[in-house]
Amino acid sequence: MTSRTVYLFCSAAPPVFEVATVIEALQARGWDVCLGLTPTAADWLRESLSGLATLTGHPVRSQYKRPGEPDVWPKADLILVAPVTFNTVNSWALGLTSTFVVGVAAEAIGKRIPIVAMPCVNAAYVQHPQFEQSVATLRSAGVTVLYGEGGFVPNEPGERRADGYPWHLALDIVETLAGPGDRA
């Protein structure tokens, strides 16, 4: 049997510190996981990067490869972008691909790779008019954005969610979009 490959892309939001548990949950569901981080998320997890690479069996990436260098990851069957911050959502929707995570996610739209995104933003950020436009742009491009009812619901600035970040919603929709495929 072949394994399915998911690219797990994380921005710098507090749920990124739970990424090892999420990787293990995806692996338990039969996924080969490749971890990509925004530069700030990579900095936050600096002490864990070696262990995360060991856990996934792939280098953790936060930078573009140089032209001509081989790709060190297998091709993605699906991409999960979570937690995805206000900055990353807006950069992605606007096509501003200065970071590896945004660049690969933007290109994946054109390659028709299924993409699930779940924001992690507070209620003050979502008042900015660009955020709703960006969510709508990504949805219109075929990205499954788990935001609002049935997805991530913003909390007040500085407030921690009693029930935590809803990783289970993202993991469940990954399985739904992937279909029955081969399991490792």
TrEMBL record:
Ranges where the Flavoprotein domain occurs: 6-138
A Pfam family per the record: Flavoprotein
InterPro entries: Flavin_trans-like, Flavoprotein
Coiled-coil blocks: none
Domain of life according to the entry: Bacteria
SUPFAM superfamilies recorded: Homo-oligomeric flavin-containing Cys decarboxylases, HFCD
Name assigned to this protein: Flavoprotein
